[in-house]
Amino acid sequence: MQRWQQQLVKTTGGLVALALVGTIAGSTTAQPVPKVVNKNHTLDYGTYLGGVGHDEARGVDFTTDNSVVACGNFKNLQTRGAKTATLTGIATTASGKILKMSADGAKVLNELTLGDRIDDCQMLRDPSGSNNPYRDRLVVGGTFGVAVIDPAKMRLEWSAVLPGPVGNGKSEGGQTRVSINRQGLVAAVRNNTVTLLDNKGVVKQTLPIDRTFVTDVAIDPVRPQLYVVGFSNRKNVNDKNNPVQVPFMYALDTAKLNFQWRTWDYDANLLTAPATDTTKARNDMADSRLYRVVVGGDGKIAVLGENAGGNTVFRWNGKDFVTQTQIKYDAYSDTYNSKSPHMLYFAKVDAMTGVVIAGQDAVPRLPEPKPGQTGLANAIRGKDGSIAVDRQGNLLIGGIAAYGTPERDENKFNGESVATYQGDDMVFLHISADLKQRLRWTPLGRGTGGGGDLNAVAVKDDRVALFGSATFGTLMTTEKTPAPNPFDPLKTDNARDAYLGVLSQIN
């Protein structure tokens, strides 16, 4: 991903980020309010995981006893005394590994090698009762296919091979994405094909999806259906045959993988409309993509994607071009004054109908060109990011951002201020359930600066796990952890360090 350092504001004191103050639209008071509510963050622990070489974060979650399980790919993993195990037929040097941390983050307890590459993992934490035999089961997807792990014992429950090529590991349809429900059913997506497996790993149904990129899947923990998202490259013949990327979301039943509803997935030729006597001309040709889907603790579906301009289909409810759903309350939740960088989009969707309940953009901004003017919208990406939803319905989002997050300099971790912007911020967003308040928006850079992509976010009660891939510099860590300092501080030869941070007191 490119750096945007040339867009920074430079002063004699170095690089600075502006802290802007405004009012929320529709507020009954004229008093300035903070753009970000919580800027003091309690970091229970922060550590690097991996070794010298290229490491990738892929998934993270909490077990019932508050241990953290992290899934990723590690070239020269150092775990210092952890119990190690490797699946039969897999080389111990294979990169795809699951790591289990102690509850205090002081050490890695277990290391389990699954295969050449892990793309995704998800934990089933069933709040309905401890008698569920699939509670705390971890489903993992990668080049090996699908595996279900008991993380309490770090033991394989079952594994299954998926047909077809393993993909290139990239977010545009090149990964094996997985999800598990309370009955132990597993849904997987690979090569634009949905596969449903029973609780023993036997394939029940498969369904090819005729779209360019199928990027993620989530099986509903309660309802007998699952959800797939992605986007397609299409052309609009009514607009000089211009290309456009159109997002889609489908609900399928868990019996025969029959379609229950479809959202977005518009015919590209309908994205433009000329003016009539009663309507204005319409243009919805901004490229729009979906990358992640989850079923939240509030029972609603949450999606994460990107759009490349304000004239996006994400403005609407996913069913028509009339019903607006975007919630905007300041310059950082609105895409105006934009030259079409990729900007983050997230939304909540009704599980029974597929109607978008509410959506929002996250938009970093460059400095004001003149006093009183709004700075140009900047890039923030979610294609390798993550979205989670707590029991109250609050959204927790990870990604990578260019310069311009609001009130950046006011963010502190355990009293230590975040670093000034140096490029490619690893960022964490925390959004209220109704999308009307930005609870947190913080980078994780420390000292002279650091960044990368926040690939995975998980929430359990009042704790949040952040698992990302650091591309440069230093991130927020704590002492008495496996590796408080980067393995590859200079990040030469495209090296990355996996980074794990656990926050408490998130509300």
Give structural attributes.
507 residues; 35 strands; disordered N terminus; six-stranded mixed beta sheet; 46% strand
Task: Give a structural overview.
The protein has 507 residues and is an all-beta fold. Helices cover 0% and strands 46% of the residues. It contains no helices and 35 strands. It has a six-stranded mixed sheet with strand order 30-29-3-35-34-33, with no helix packed on it. Strands 4-5-7-8-6 form a five-stranded mixed sheet, with no helix packed on it. It is globular. It starts with 8 loop residues before the first strand and ends with a strand. Mean pLDDT is 90; it is low at 1-31.
How is this structure best summarized?
With 507 residues, the chain is mainly beta. It is built from no helices and 35 strands.
Strand content: over 45%
Rg, nearest Å: 22 Å
- Point out poorly predicted stretches: 1-31
For the largest beta-sheet, the strand count, sense and barrel status come to: 6 strands, mixed
Q: Please report the number of helical segments.
A: 0
- Strand order across the largest sheet: 30-29-3-35-34-33
Roughly what is the average pLDDT, rounded to an integer? 90
Helix content: under 10%
Overall shape: globular
Instruction: Specify the structural class.
Output: mainly beta
Number of strands: 35
- The rounded distance between the terminal residues' Cα atoms is 32 Å
List the helices and strands and how they pair.
Layout: E1 9-11, E2 14-16, E3 40-49, E4 56-62, E5 68-73, E6 83-86, E7 96-101, E8 108-115, E9 118-123, E10 138-142, E11 145-150, E12 155-160, E13 177-180, E14 186-190, E15 193-197, E16 203-208, E17 213-219, E18 225-236, E19 242-253, E20 259-264, E21 272-273, E22 282-283, E23 288-295, E24 301-307, E25 343-349, E26 356-362, E27 380-389, E28 395-401, E29 412-413, E30 416-417, E31 425-431, E32 438-443, E33 445-460, E34 463-475, E35 497-504
Parallel strand pairs: 3-29, 6-8
Antiparallel strand pairs: 1-2, 3-35, 4-5, 5-7, 7-8, 9-10, 10-11, 11-12, 13-14, 14-15, 15-16, 17-18, 18-19, 19-20, 21-22, 23-24, 24-25, 25-26, 27-28, 28-31, 29-30, 31-32, 33-34, 34-35
